[in-house]
Amino acid sequence: MVEHLTDAATYPLLHQTLLLAEAAFTVLFTLEYLLRWYASPNRWRYPFALHALVDLIAILPSILMFAHVLGIGSEFLVLRTVRLLRTLRLLRLLRLLRILRHGYSVYRLAVIVRIWTTAIVYQYRLGRVARLLLLSVLAWVAGANVLHLIERVSENPTHPSPYAADYWETYWGVIVFIISGMDAPEPVSLGARVVVTTLLVAGICIVAVFTGEVVSILVRTEQRRGRMALKPPGLKLAEHVVILGRNDHLERIIHQIHRAFGGRHYILVVCEDAETLPSPGPLTHRRVFALQGNPARDDVLDAANIEDARRVIVLSGDAGKATPSERDDVALMHALAAVARNRAIPLVVELQEPESLRYASSIKTADCLVSRHFGEMLMSQSVHNGGVAEIYDELMTFSADTSEFYRVRVPSQLVGKTFRQAQELFLDLDTESIVPVGIDGPGAHAYRDFRLCVADGTGRASLADHVLTESDHLIVCAFDRPSFDTSKPEMAWHEIPRS
Amino acid sequence: MARDPSELTDHVVICNVNEKVRAIVEQLRHDPVAGAIDIALIVQDAKLWEANPEWHPPLGGAGRVFQILGCPAESDALRRARIAQARAAVILADPELGMLADARSALVGIAIERENPHVHTVMELILSVNRSHLRATAVDEVICLGELSEKLLSQSAVTPGVSKLFAHLLSSRSDTGQLFVRPVPNVLVGSTYRELARRAIRNDAPYVVCGFIRHRPRERGGRHESIVVFNPRVNTVPGKDSHLDTRDSLILLASGPPDLSLMDG
Fold first, then answer.
1. Same structural domain for residues B110 and B223?
2. Residue A369 belongs to what H/E stretch?
3. Same domain, residue pair B147 and B181
4. CATH code of residue B181
5. What number of CA atoms fall less than 13 Å from residue A118's CA on the CB side?
6. Angle, in degrees to the nearest 10, between helices A388-396 and B145-158
7. What ipTM was predicted for this assembly?
């Protein structure tokens, strides 16, 4: 937005340019307002919607201003002369209210900037460097003032001191003393000489510490090159995905999660060897932090801020000396520790032995997976159906070129229609590829009561004649979340159900 | 367990034994969709096999299990398992070899190919980095548990509960949906995916046509290359409106063997 606060008489060209720019923006915003009104589903209600009022308040002052400039309604405006115009100018600041429209984006940007700056400050120890610089500046200011004061008090007319005559010269003198000490004129009084000597020693110390600090930062940066960024101690992540433990699958899980969430959520890996974790690659590096510590310890889970996390993934330990059962024990302990801090958080727990599922069933929010079990089933199916292994591989991979399963609300235009009609509608849809395969119940617990469109006891597709209701969820295969799933941008951080 | 497999035909040969063998044998023997299947189990390390009775499939039930002692990479053991008459071979990772099992499994795959180039081969892979090397072999399907674990964990983390859907689809129970891959019958050759899917919907077929697999010979080498087109798009080739031919296979979601004649006309 342009504010033409320039004086028209002094800067006529600039004034003219800014005025034109303001006119252009006003026309643009007015057009946007009218188009939004035209496109709104309910044109009677639209002007009274909060965002529409914000838009109107934002453009109205400018429209009134230009109306005055063009002489429209001039009688009314002239009466209030300059005072009213000034008021109108101030009113134009209300345009800033338009930011409210993008409140979610601004919030998200603020969060990203906060996390990024905290990480940079921690990685390069900028806090310590800043404290050191502050100390130097304080020493400089204090030293210069003390030097000036002493020289002034003990001023000798026969030996005039440059530090007594000129206050600002003292600052320059102190700098020269600290850096070179060669060309600066000597102080005259004994006290000032003591001060200068102290400053010289302090300067040597500060420079040495500063140099050491910079070298240490460079060495540490070099040592951590290619490694996962460590979570700064004071940084509180929110809406993040926490991975407890590590094994060979970690890196690829990070990539999958990052891709699935479009990089919106931060990922925090908590394990005892976080310092040595490799970086997940340039694309995901900025969204992933590692936290050193035992994931079963309270202070570590505190630092992971598991209360505000969106998801927790518990990985079983590396296949080293521990037996599969021992690995499961550790994973279950980590899962219990997470649930103890946040009972509602959805967990995914990787287990090795099917027997461990008995214990895992006591954790209500946990989704426990024994991949061996899935592998055995997939091998059996592959024997009968050549190619299914590749199909499942595609269905389980998050990428732009593969389909995944999505559970979405029935769009309003399909409410009251049969599942068969929905199938035909999606088949004819060419803008995006969607195959509906079944429906899920209305509950928040996904895939608890789902039904697929396959034969029932009668040999007919049981779902074909099912009339879709608003509370139904469609299970569809699609390359991305279907566009008819019109969740608001504000919901992007909450698009995954909490339970 | 039976020991004379001389009459075996259209059976499944399982090479090597590990902790997965019991579940796999059980599912194959009691598959309600495919029916009872006979199994030839090639056991290389008899001591290991005897030391782990929990791996042994239970006696009785549908389908016979034949145990053959020998090295699955050698012709003798494969011939005794009648690999030439088998419908499929499953190569499990040798637990004695740990992370090095993939090399032995690949050798077994090559040996099977030499004995019967037409048998459908499914191999268990330990290290996903070896997957690309197996493209040069005759192994038809490679299943890496590590990859499967990563993908399932990610899917479940993003969409809680979706593992139940996968478990449902992968289960061989008769009351669950499964993905079936069936060659395009001659009467349907020339149709597009869109046409077939529409006919299935309108004829009230008890299945969902999800896509197709295009098998084509590779430019180099004699083996075929398969392109899985699951949920075909309009703007890609092959896609929603590509004409299918006899070399293609349809992917269908059904609870039993799908009747493709329901898409005819």
1. no
2. strand A366-370
3. no
4. 3.30.70
5. 15
6. 40
7. 0.86
- Any chain B CB within 8 A of the CB of A113? no
| Any A CB within 8 A of B227 CB | no
Closest CA relative to residue A311, chosen from A258, A360, A357:
A258
Same domain (yes/no): B139, B255: no
Name the region of A334 (left: φ>0; alpha: ψ -120 to 50; beta: rest).
alpha
pTM (2 d.p.): 0.74
**Res. A3 pLDDT band, cuts 50 70 90:** very low
Residues B143 and B224 occupy one common structural domain: no
Domain that holds residue B182: 177-263
CA distance A100 to chain B (A): 30
Q: Which two tokens stand for residue A396?
A: 């389980």
Summarised one tens digit per residue, pLDDT across range A250-272 is 998 999 899 888 888 899 999 99
Q: How far apart are CA A424 and CA A419, in angstroms?
A: 9
State how far the alpha carbon of A70 is from the alpha carbons of A67, A75, A178, in Å: 5, 12, 65
Report whether A144 contacts A170 (CB < 8 A).
Answer: yes
- Spell out where B221-261 has E strands: 224-230, 248-254
Residue of A206, A269, A214 whose CA lies nearest to A237: A269
Q: What's the domain count of chain B?
A: 2
Q: Which residues of B touch A323 (CB under 8 A)?
A: none
Q: What is the tens place of the pLDDT at every residue in A219-245?
A: 988 888 899 999 998 888 888 999 999
A297 and A271 Cβ atoms separated by less than 8 Å:
no
Distances B6 to A277, A469, B79, B119, B160 between C-alpha atoms, Å: 54, 59, 10, 18, 49
| Domain endpoint, select from B134, B151, B168 | B151
